[in-house]
Structure formats: C-alpha cells, structure tokens
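Example 3.2
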Amino acid sequence: MIITHKDKTPWIDSSAYVAPNATLCGDVVVGAGSRIMFGACVIAEGQTLELGENCIVMENAVIRSTDEHPTIVGAHSLIGPHAHLVGCTLEECVFIATGVSVFHGAYLGYGTEVRVGGVVHLRSRLPAYTTVPIGWIAVGDPAKLFTPDQHEAIWKIQKPLNFPLFVYGVDRAAEGESNMPEITQRRSNALKTHMNDVIMEETE
C-alpha cells in the first residue's frame, strides 16, 4: 500500500519490488533493486526515509523516521524479519538480523552486523565492521557492548542520553511520577496527521 502523508508520496525506483501487503507512507525513497517484503512497514512521519540500492527489507520489519529524526539505510543492507529501526543512520553493507532494534540518533558504520535480538540504543555510534553479538546491547558514543544482564552498566551510559527528552521532547519524570500523559498527548497530536493520509494505490 502506497500512502501520501503530509503531501509526500513514496518514490520507488522502477526496478524495486514492494510486496502487495507491505506499507510505504510519506517521504520515502526506495533505491534501485531494493526489495520490501510481505508485511513490512516503511513509514516517514516527517523527516525523510531513504533506502539505498539493493536494500532488502524482510517480512514484518518496521522502519520509521520521525518529525525530528530521518532514517537512512545505505546500499546493500539487509533488514531482517521483525526488526525495528527508527530515526537512525546505517552506512552501506549493514546486516540487521531478526528481531533487532535500532533507536533514534544511532549511527552504524560500514559493514556493521547486529545479530539476532540485538539492540543499538539511541545516540549510539558503532564504528565500521562492528559486530553486536546475539542478544547483546550497544550503547554510547563510541558504543560499548554489553550482555543483557549488565543493566546497571548499561543504565550508567544510557541515563544521561535522556531517551524521553531526545525522542519525545519531554524530560524524564521524577522518581514516583509519570511523564506518560504528556508523552501520549504529544504523540496523539503528532499522529493525528495520518487522518489526512491518502492511499495512492495498491502495490502490484
């Protein structure tokens, strides 16, 4: 499904393939030879979202840009099934395995591999040819790699990056309080722009 959002319609190279039940929405550019497979969602909420030449987006992957954070996927990169990328930059030849999450402001250098279930946290920077092992977490600039059981070490780096402020524009709530009413209201207001979207065509 091809959808115009905020007066921006996806541009798809004539040699690319988009599966019939994949969704492309907004300011999306799909390069030559790329393949977007069944159930994948490629959504530009405001900033551009670009897929370079010969990018492979596997089943049920979600790739998004936001109002503040563009998403760029370099040529010859593969995004595995059920992966989630948002507001990040991947250089060329990056491999994103099944179930990986890459967050806002992250930068993955040439030839990086993030293996099954790995996480690259917001504002984290991975040099060329970095490998994030299965289930591990990369955080920081330059990124350090941690196993999931190292929460305190991860949080020491992650907390100053201030996820709610960087992503939602809302400072972290004080202990014993919640900032979710403000976050959800802001997201509701931003996402209501989809009420004016126009379905352009069914992909063939």
